[in-house]
Each structure stands twice: as structure tokens, then as C-alpha cells.
Design brief:
By secondary structure, the protein is of the alpha+beta class. Helices cover about 45% and strands about 15% of the residues. The protein is built from 13 helices and eleven strands. The protein has an eight-stranded mixed β-sheet with strand order 4-10-9-8-5-6-7-11, sandwiched between helices. Helix 8 links the parallel strand 6 and strand 7. Helix 10 packs across helix 12 and helix 11 packs across helix 12.
Length: about 350
């Protein structure tokens, strides 16, 4: 029977092939079958369902169905027992590893959550901000770009600011100079009193809120419907350093903006002139200074008139001649009266 094995009939005694079922059933009914009848189904010999008749080797006799069932049940019991042992081993291993986990002290950042977490949706952002507000005990630093703050925006964060003030938390806010013209901001600062200090710059970085130098929030998309919650110490420290440097450059909201020293040119127009000299388009300048494109172009028109420029190209030359192509300074030497700045 070489070459005839279970490879040709890949099954067990619990699921006989059709040919094997016919021959075995016949053997049980008749008590034996000729050996030649079993040659096409070697699986019956391999599975010990048929074995030679000791009285006549040309015949095969069947193993009783009761014995086959007992054998099958014993095999199933052995498989279940082995599975139970494997499950028991897995449970024991799990408990062992879990015990090791309790012995390891978590890193400081792990106790505060992941180092960087993406907050998708305004609801999740507000929830995370409220949690950070409740945990804050010392200081909140914020950068608020975008020009005049709408009263709705200020009212939205008023409950957090009030809660912070009640716990003696110090707050410092950075805005663009344009924000000085919003009544909503002035009302907000009056409500908060000494708890909030505000300063302004020509332009600031993107929005930033930093609690206790431990957790920071920054936008993750242009629409500000997603945000990043940052708890990595190096990132938070870096953002805190950026804030402090901008703060030192900024002008207190209670102090007036410095005069440009050039008759007819306001501080804002001086900032626009510097950005024009850098080659920025009107829309970019408007966004950086927190004003509308229409307002930006109105200032550019007044710049052109004041400096006597008939075109954008000539305006660039006049800006450079007047020394307006650099960052705004607190004081400048005024040009000779009547010269219209080297017309």
C-alpha cells in the first residue's frame, strides 16, 4: 500500500470520505469485506477502522462503532484539556506581566497624558481647555492673532478667565496693535482687572495658549477646528521662551504706540511699508497685521500719497529712501519740512 495514505484522503474518523463511508458501513453490516474492496480507500486502514482478519488475511474486519466513538471522545477530551492548560498558562503569564507593570514607576510625562495629542473638533478642544484651566494654578500665557477680537470670542473664554482669576492665576495676553481699537477687548480687560496684563505688537505668531509652563495648545489646521495639545517639556519650554521674547518687544496696552517721527505716516503704515519692502502681497500683509485687505490697501494709498509715489515700483523706492524698509522704531529723524521725503 505504498503511496496510499491519508494525503489522498485528508480527514479523520469523525468525517469519513464518501467512499470510505460506503466500505466501512458495508463491513459493519456484513462483519467483514474483501481486502480488494478497501484498496481505493486506504484511509480506513490508516485510521484503524479496518484491520486484517487473523483467520483470513484476504479479508478485513471493522473496528466496532462503539470503540470508534470512545476513541473520538477521548481525543476531544485530550484537545480540550490541552486548550485549558494553554489558557491557564496565558492567564498566569498575563498576571505576571501585569505585576511587573505595577512595579515600574511611570515617567513624569506619562502621568500627564501623551506628549502630543490631536484634538479633532471644537467640542474636544473646549473640553481639553476646560480641563487645563481647572488644573492651572500659577500662570496662563496667550497669543491672540487676528486683529480686533470679536466680543463673541472674548465671551467664549470669559468663564475660564474668571475661574483663573478667582484662584489668583496670573494671565498675560499678546495681541496685534489693531486689537487696541476693539471695544470688546477693552471691556474684557476692565472686567478682569489686575489679573490680566496685555501687550501688543505689529504682528504676532499663530494662536498659542500655555498653562503653567506644562501644557500648551496650538492650532493644527487653518480653520482652527483641530488643535494640538502639547505636554512634551522641551516643546513647552520652547514655546514659553518664544512668548517671553515677544513679550519684551511688545508695548503695554495702556501705553500709546510710538510716533513714527515722519509726518503723515502712522505706526500701522510704517509696518505696512516694511512688509511691502519685503515683497509681500496685500493679502499677506493684511493677515499678518490683523486687518482687512481693503483697510490695508487704503493705508497703502495714503503711503503713496504721503511719499509722493505714482506707482507701486516708485513706492518701493520712496519707502527705502525714507528708511521705512526696516522694522518700526520708536523714533526717527524727521525729513526736512516740505521735502515730502526726498520726492
Amino acid at each position: 500500500m505504498a503511496g496510499h495514505g491519508t494525503d489522498e484522503h485528508p480527514h479523520g474518523a469523525d468525517r469519513l470520505c464518501e467512499a470510505g463511508d460506503r466500505v466501512y458501513s458495508r463491513a459493519v453490516r456484513r462483519g467483514r469485506v474483501p481486502r480488494r474492496d478497501a484498496e481505493p480507500v486506504p484511509c480506513l486502514m490508516d485510521l484503524a477502522l479496518l484491520h486484517p482478519d487473523p483467520d483470513d488475511m484476504d479479508w478485513l474486519v471493522p473496528t466496532s462503532p462503539q470503540e470508534v466513538m470512545t476513541r473520538l471522545l477521548r481525543g476531544m477530551y485530550d484537545e480540550v484539556s490541552a486548550s485549558q492548560r494553554r489558557v491557564g498558562s496565558a492567564v498566569a503569564a498575563f498576571e505576571w506581566y501585569a505585576g511587573l507593570g505595577h512595579q515600574v514607576s511611570p515617567a513624569p510625562s506619562a502621568t500627564e497624558g501623551p506628549a502630543i495629542r490631536v484634538l479633532d473638533g471644537l467640542a474636544r478642544i473646549q473640553t481639553a481647555m476646560d480641563e487645563a484651566t481647572q488644573a492651572c494654578t500659577t500662570e496662563v500665557l496667550t497669543v491672540q492673532p487676528g486683529g480686533i477680537r470679536r466680543e463673541a470670542e472674548l465671551s467664549e473664554g470669559l468663564h475660564r478667565a474668571t475661574a483663573l482669576r478667582g484662584r489668583g492665576v496670573r494671565m498675560r495676553d499678546l495681541y496685534t496693535h489693531v486689537a487696541r481699537h476693539g471695544q470688546g477687548l477693552l471691556t474684557y480687560l476692565e472686567l478682569m482687572g489686575d489679573a490680566v496684563e496685555a501687550r501688543t505688537l505689529d504682528e504676532v505668531i499663530e494662536r498659542l495658549i500655555l498653562f503653567d509652563r506644562t501644557v500648551a495648545f496650538i492650532p493644527a489646521n487653518a480653520e482652527r477646528t483641530m488643535a494640538l495639545e502639547l505636554r512634551h517639556p522641551a516643546l513647552v519650554e520652547y514655546l514659553g521662551t518664544v512668548f517671553e521674547r515677544l513679550w519684551r518687544l511688545a508695548i503695554p496696552l495702556t501705553a500709546p504706540l510710538p510716533d513714527t517721527g515722519i509726518e503723515g505716516i502712522s505706526h500701522r503704515e510704517q509696518s505696512i511699508a516694511a512688509l511691502l519692502a519685503e515683497g509681500h502681497q496685500d493679502a499677506v500683509i493684511a493677515e499678518r497685521l490683523g486687518i482687512s485687505v481693503r483697510t490695508c490697501r487704503a493705508h497703502i494709498a495714503r503711503l503713496s500719497e504721503t511719499l509722493g509715489a505714482a506707482s507701486r515700483t516708485q513706492l518701493g523706492v520712496r519707502i527705502a529712501q525714507a528708511g521705512l524698509d526696516g522694522p518700526p522704531r520708536s523714533s526717527r529723524t524727521a525729513p526736512a519740512r516740505g521735502s515730502r521725503t526726498a520726492r
